[in-house]
């Protein structure tokens, strides 16, 4: 019931919001998101640290075909449920600063997105997962295309088609796997429960192409080099709440998919192609970081940094080690928090100075002590300074990748150095130095803005100082998953 | 059987009702007649009846297809009130022809004797030729009618030749009789049978606008008045595919290895031509014509991969496709009339600019239709495509599946052009006026699409 | 050669000649007259196959009613010589190829097929006569026969609907 209400509550709230015309719609949306956060926090708090699926629900959907409407939370999805529940009210609150026209549509789209994301992370049936995976695209497409920047129509369309193209391959693979399941003695009976896919014995050739089908779908979503061309433009042209949803939660769907589907179902495919996949991911890290160093637009810089970080997460997953997987899970949580905070800071700066270009900014720290502190905390989290969340994630990930392949691990380790370069450069150019014409009068954070950044900062330190509160929750499920991999 | 009798009688009644001074009664009367036919269809549920010495066979599958056809006709008639009023035409004849064409469609769905198939095809086709040319003052309508008639008559002639050859090979017109001939002569099937299958397929594939017999479709759909295009693209296709399914799955399943390769090649050609040409269209109506060709391709996948899943897939896909097409045409009709440009009725994509802001309801209805036709999840169209894909996977023909998936992606491009025009472009300032009853029909179709998209299991087990 | 075979070959020859004349004649009236000749020869073929009713109906309906309609239309439209544009060479080539493939396939099938021999004992010489046809039509095939009336009704309603004079039409 809990999981089902996690999915249905935002849907109901969003539909009701569509009917409300008054300006109170913003607070109502925030209220709904906070209730959802309470549910997600409750789920996290009462989660038992074992390898079982908890808070399950299971209803027949297309019962004759063995396709069921079933979901639940296990160790792999619990952190992502928490992330979605935590980030949505913060994203909603962050949108209060800007007056978006047609607010009821705007906020209900954010809530619909949250419902779809919750569905993706809690689905136990492969086709239900696919449905939510695709359904999550629709709200974010409308959010980006209706309230986005100038080039939004072409950019968001490219994003939509590119992503759907990838996931259609995944659909073919899922249908194929569905037809491979069966009950011996009962022909024509199949099942689409994900755990049934784990127990399939696929031929190496089949494993190869199923691997590629899944990889293409998730690689486009995350993105992984070279399927990343949609990402910077889409992140920049979207309105900031949409960018936060995209980078904070939606790209995690790709990593989650890798862990949930790719690793356990096609281990032999992973044996054959894993090195190539890891190399692509690591290439993305270095490539993204180098381009980020050259960026003048803050939003684009953060977008490329997100691309670099996700490359490390993917590499960690492909390393097939417990450390790599644990690192990916905690880094998903950490990166979501950091990147949402960073985009919010960029939005605050844009809101006050009407510019995101670093050469037009400078000296903001003079009048904004609070903003400086929060910005620095989030930045250091992104740079992976010890005691911050990023450090825990990157340490575990690099550990995993290094164990898989020393050279790739060494190259991936460059992310620490390069990340520090572009992040600190961004901070220095925007906050320090002489003020420019735009930044002379820069008000410090308002109450609502502080309320967004404070929880993020708290989480940065909580995960950084006491990561075990999160890691112990995920560990049994990760070890359970790995038994399918090391065959 | 009863629906056929009822609809014929009601058609004649409507012709007489055309003598009345006031035309107000015609639309409700037609709707009531269609509902009565629908009610009598369900009387045969659960049983398999053979009527009149192997002339008609009614089983659950035929009842489902008949329901889809009657539902489509109901929606088209319900959407017709504003359209027919201002034409100063005689609506009684149009409605009567629609009812008669339904007779033909039902005959095509529940035939057991190939003669019934032929007569049914002819009734449906002749009614469609007339309705295509019903806008007498428009040269495009005249062109559409003539093109459809000439090519259609030719195709029917070929089909009849095929039926004659089948008789020559098997000695019977009855579908189950042909099946037993094929099974008893498994190794020595007469060559005339193969020739007959090919010619019959050519005739039927023409009717459902599969490539390379699709050349009539864009001009005919474009020239026909919008309402009748909606009827043509849904009812004729549903009836055609029901007929193809019956004839292929009962009579010719024994020689599956002979015809499946040809049908597979035609499927790929249809998908390719339908999707790729639709990308280049600037007129919404023409785009819908090409898209209906591509949907014929998807339905053909179900036939190529004939198996246990095919029935369910064809029924669900036809239903999803009919709902989405008719609501899309419903929105097109009202928008193209009220947002005319220099050439009169504007059926291009730019007529939809800014529609979502002025008429959020119309925008939402059209968006859901387009998403359903594109096969995006949360709509019935996704599950229709999914079921078709599972038929191909069931037979193990994965290359068709991959090709269909690629073509789906191409399809998303042109379906989204409307959504982009509606939501993200600026358009005319005044909202489009929609009559209340019209609105209810569109809302009902959209709700049904969404409900089936979320709970496809509702229709499961019915087939 | 038996006399009946001679009749068959002569009739076939005339049929093919007049059919070719229909397609190739310049003057449309010649075309129509050749079509009438073709129909008469086809009726002759029907008689050879013992389908007397069909032969009679063919002459009455086709060579009689429909051909008269053709002549009237041609005379109304005042067509003289053929002055329509020819199709492009590509179209002609495609038509030849497609038609040719169909013809070759059908010829091969008809040559290779083994039709069952006529069973002399079972053969009923009255099969094509009106009485037998009537019995079949009104017993076994009653349903399609009656439903064909719906088809005729549709055609009639359609013809009247499309051809009716409306207010504002041009009068010729």
TrEMBL record, chain A:
Entry keywords, A to Z: Membrane, Transmembrane, Transmembrane helix
Record Pfam families: Proton_antipo_M (PF00361)
Family under the similarity heading: Belongs to the complex I subunit 4 family.
Compartment(s): Endomembrane system; Membrane
InterPro entries in alphabetical order: NADH_Q_OxRdtase_chainM/4 (IPR010227), NADH_UbQ_OxRdtase (IPR003918), ND/Mrp_TM (IPR001750)
GO BP: ATP synthesis coupled electron transport; electron transport coupled proton transport
GO molecular function: NADH dehydrogenase (ubiquinone) activity; NADH dehydrogenase activity; ubiquinone binding
Keyword tRNA-binding: no
Membrane topology, as annotated: Multi-pass membrane protein
Superkingdom as given in the UniProt entry: Bacteria
One Gene Ontology term, aspect cellular component: endomembrane system
Designated name of the protein: NADH dehydrogenase
Cited NCBIfam families: NDH_I_M
Organism: Arsenicibacter rosenii
Domain NADH:quinone oxidoreductase/Mrp antiporter transmembrane, chain residue ranges per copy: 123-415
The UniProt record lists the keyword Disulfide bond: no
Main subcellular localisation: membrane
Regions crossing the membrane: 76-97, 104-121, 127-147, 159-179, 209-230, 242-263, 275-294, 301-322, 328-350, 371-392, 404-424, 445-465
Lineage: Bacteria, Pseudomonadati, Bacteroidota, Cytophagia, Cytophagales
From TrEMBL, chain B:
Keyword Transport tagged: yes
Subcellular compartments: Cell membrane; Endomembrane system; Membrane
Domain spans labelled NADH:quinone oxidoreductase/Mrp antiporter transmembrane: 113-408
One GO process term, biological-process aspect: ATP synthesis coupled electron transport
GO cellular component, one term: endomembrane system
Superkingdom of the organism of origin: Bacteria
InterPro entries linked: NADH-Q_OxRdtase_suN/2, ND/Mrp_TM
EC number in record: 7.1.1.-
Keywords recorded for this protein, A-Z: Cell membrane, Membrane, NAD, Quinone, Translocase, Transmembrane, Transmembrane helix, Transport
Record field: catalytic activity: a quinone + NADH + 5 H(+)(in) = a quinol + NAD(+) + 4 H(+)(out)
Coiled-coil annotated spans: none
Topological relation to the membrane, as annotated: Multi-pass membrane protein
Subunit structure: NDH-1 is composed of 14 different subunits. Subunits NuoA, H, J, K, L, M, N constitute the membrane sector of the complex.
Role noted for this protein: NDH-1 shuttles electrons from NADH, via FMN and iron-sulfur (Fe-S) centers, to quinones in the respiratory chain. The immediate electron acceptor for the enzyme in this species is believed to be a menaquinone. Couples the redox reaction to proton translocation (for every two electrons transferred, four hydrogen ions are translocated across the cytoplasmic membrane), and thus conserves the redox energy in a proton gradient.
Stated family: Belongs to the complex I subunit 2 family.
Protein name: NADH-quinone oxidoreductase subunit N
Lineage: Bacteria, Pseudomonadati, Bacteroidota, Cytophagia, Cytophagales
Name of encoding gene: nuoN
Automatic annotation (TrEMBL), chain C:
Keywords (A to Z) from UniProt: Cell membrane, Membrane, NAD, Quinone, Transmembrane, Transmembrane helix
Subcellular location: Cell membrane
Enzyme class: translocase
Protein EC: 7.1.1.-
Top-rank lineage group of the source organism: Bacteria
Listed InterPro entries: NADH_UbQ/plastoQ_OxRdtase_su6 (IPR001457), Nuo/plastoQ_OxRdtase_6_NuoJ (IPR042106)
Family, similarity comment: Belongs to the complex I subunit 6 family.
Name of the featured protein: NADH-quinone oxidoreductase subunit J
Record organism: Arsenicibacter rosenii
């Amino acid at each position: 019931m809990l999981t089902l209400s996690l999915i249905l509550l935002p849907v109901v709230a969003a539909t009701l919001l569509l009917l409300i015309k008054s300006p109170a719609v913003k607070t109502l949306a925030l209220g709904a998101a906070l209730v959802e956060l309470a549910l997600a926090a409750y789920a996290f708090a009462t989660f038992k640290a074992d390898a079982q699926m908890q808070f399950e629900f299971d209803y027949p959907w297309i019962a004759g075909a063995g396709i069921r409407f079933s979901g639940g939370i296990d160790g792999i999805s619990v952190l992502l449920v928490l992330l979605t529940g935590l980030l949505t009210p913060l994203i909603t609150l962050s949108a209060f600063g800007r007056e978006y026209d047609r607010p009821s549509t705007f906020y209900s789209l954010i809530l619909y997105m949250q419902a779809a994301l919750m569905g993706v992370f809690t689905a136990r049936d492969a086709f239900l997962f696919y449905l939510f995976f695709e359904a999550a695209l629709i709200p974010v497409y409308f959010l980006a295309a209706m309230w986005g920047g100038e080039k939004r129509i072409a950019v968001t369309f490219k994003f939509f088609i590119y992503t759907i193209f990838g996931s259609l391959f995944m659909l073919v693979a899922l249908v194929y796997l569905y037809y491979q399941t069966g009950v011996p003695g009962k022909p024509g009976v199949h099942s689409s429960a994900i755990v049934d896919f784990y127990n399939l014995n696929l031929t190496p050739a089949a494993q190869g192409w199923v691997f590629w089908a899944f990889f293409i779908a998730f690689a486009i979503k995350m993105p992984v080099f070279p399927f990343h061309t949609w990402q910077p433009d889409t992140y920049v042209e979207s309105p900031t709440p949409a960018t936060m949803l995209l980078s904070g939660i939606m790209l995690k769907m790709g990593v989650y998919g890798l862990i949930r589907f790719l690793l356990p179902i096609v281990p032999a495919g992973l044996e054959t192609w894993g090195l190539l996949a890891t190399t692509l991911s690591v290439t993305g890290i270095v490539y993204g970081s180098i381009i980020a160093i050259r960026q003048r637009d803050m939003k684009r810089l953060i977008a490329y940094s997100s691309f670099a970080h996700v490359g490390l997460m993917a590499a960690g997953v492909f390393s097939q080690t417990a450390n790599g997987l644990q690192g990916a899970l905690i880094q998903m949580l950490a990166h979501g928090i950091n990147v949402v905070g960073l985009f919010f800071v960029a939005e605050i700066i844009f809101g006050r100075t009407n510019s995101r270009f670093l050469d037009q900014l400078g000296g903001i720290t003079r009048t904004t002590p609070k903003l400086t502190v929060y910005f620095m905390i989030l930045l250091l989290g992104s740079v992976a300074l010890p005691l911050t969340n990023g450090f825990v994630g990157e340490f575990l990930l690099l550990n995993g990748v290094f164990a898989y392949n020393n050279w790739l691990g060494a190259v991936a380790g460059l992310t620490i150095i390069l990340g520090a370069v572009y992040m600190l450069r961004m901070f220095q150019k925007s906050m320090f130095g002489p003020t420019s014409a735009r930044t002379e009068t820069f008000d410090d954070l308002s109450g609502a803005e502080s309320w967004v950044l404070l929880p993020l900062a708290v989480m940065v330190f909580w995960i950084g100082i006491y990561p075990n509160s999160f890691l112990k929750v995920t560990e049994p499920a990760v070890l359970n998953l790995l038994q399918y991999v090391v065959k | 059987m009863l629906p056929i009798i009822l609809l014929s009688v009601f058609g004649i009644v409507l012709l007489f009702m055309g003598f009345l001074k006031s035309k107000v009664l015609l639309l409700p009367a037609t709707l009531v007649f269609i509902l009565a036919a629908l009610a009598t269809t369900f009387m045969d549920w659960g049983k398999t009846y053979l009527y009149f010495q192997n002339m008609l066979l009614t089983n659950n599958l035929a009842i489902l297809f008949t329901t889809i056809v009657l539902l489509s006709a109901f929606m088209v008639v319900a959407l017709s009130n504003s359209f027919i009023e201002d034409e100063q035409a005689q609506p009684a004849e149009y409605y009567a022809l629609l009812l008669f064409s339904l007779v033909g469609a039902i005959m095509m769905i529940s035939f057991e004797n190939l003669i019934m198939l032929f007569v049914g095809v002819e009734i449906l086709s002749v009614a469609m030729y007339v309705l295509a040319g019903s806008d007498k003052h428009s040269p495009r309508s005249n062109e559409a009618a003539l093109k459809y008639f000439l090519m259609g008559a030719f195709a029917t002639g070929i089909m009849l030749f095929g039926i004659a050859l089948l008789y020559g090979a098997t000695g019977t017109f009855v579908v189950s009789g042909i099946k037993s001939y094929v099974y008893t002569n498994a190794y020595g099937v007469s060559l005339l049978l193969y020739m007959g299958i090919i010619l019959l397929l050519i005739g039927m594939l023409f009717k459902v606008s599969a490539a390379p017999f699709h050349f009539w479709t864009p001009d005919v759909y474009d020239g026909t008045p919008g309402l009748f295009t909606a009827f043509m693209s849904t009812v004729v296709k549903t009836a055609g595919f029901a007929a193809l399914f019956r004839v292929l799955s009962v009579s010719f399943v024994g020689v599956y290895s002979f015809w499946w390769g040809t049908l597979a090649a035609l499927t790929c050609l249809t998908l390719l031509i339908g999707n790729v040409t639709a990308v280049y269209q600037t007129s919404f109506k023409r785009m819908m014509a090409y898209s209906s060709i591509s949907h014929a391709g998807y339905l053909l996948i179900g036939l190529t991969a004939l198996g246990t899943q095919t029935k369910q897939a064809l029924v669900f896909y036809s239903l999803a496709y009919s709902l989405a097409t008719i609501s899309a045409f419903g929105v097109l009709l009202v928008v193209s009339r009220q947002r005319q440009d220099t050439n009169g009725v504007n059926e291009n994509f730019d007529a939809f600019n800014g529609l979502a802001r002025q008429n959020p309801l119309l925008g939402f209805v059209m968006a859901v239709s387009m998403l359903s036709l594109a096969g995006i999840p949360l709509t019935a169209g996704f599950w229709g495509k999914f079921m078709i894909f599972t038929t191909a996977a069931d037979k193990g023909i994965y290359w068709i599946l991959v090709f269909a998936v690629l073509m789906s992606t191409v399809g998303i491009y042109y379906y989204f052009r409307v959504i982009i025009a509606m939501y993200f472009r600026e358009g005319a300032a005044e909202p489009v006026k929609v009559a209340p009853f019209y609105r209810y029909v569109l809302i009902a179709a959209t709700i049904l699409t969404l409900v089936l998209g979320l709970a496809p299991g509702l229709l499961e087990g019915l087939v | 050669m038996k006399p009946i075979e001679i009749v068959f070959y002569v009739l076939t020859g005339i049929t093919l000649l007049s059919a070719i004349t229909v397609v190739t004649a310049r003057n449309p009236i010649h075309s129509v007259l050749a079509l009438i000749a073709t129909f008469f020869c086809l009726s002759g073929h029907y008689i050879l196959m013992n389908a007397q009713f069909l032969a009679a109906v063919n002459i009455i309906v086709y060579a009689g009613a429909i051909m008269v309609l053709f002549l009237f239309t041609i005379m109304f439209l005042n067509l003289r010589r053929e002055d329509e544009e020819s199709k492009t060479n590509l179209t002609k080539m495609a038509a030849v190829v497609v038609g040719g493939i169909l013809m070759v396939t059908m010829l091969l099938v008809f040559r290779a097929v083994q039709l069952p021999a006529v069973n002399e004992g079972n053969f009923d010489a009255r099969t094509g006569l009106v009485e037998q046809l009537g019995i079949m039509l009104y017993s076994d095939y009653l349903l399609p026969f009656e439903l064909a009336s719906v088809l005729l009704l549709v055609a009639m309603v359609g013809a009247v609907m499309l051809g009716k004079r409306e207010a504002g039409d041009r009068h010729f």
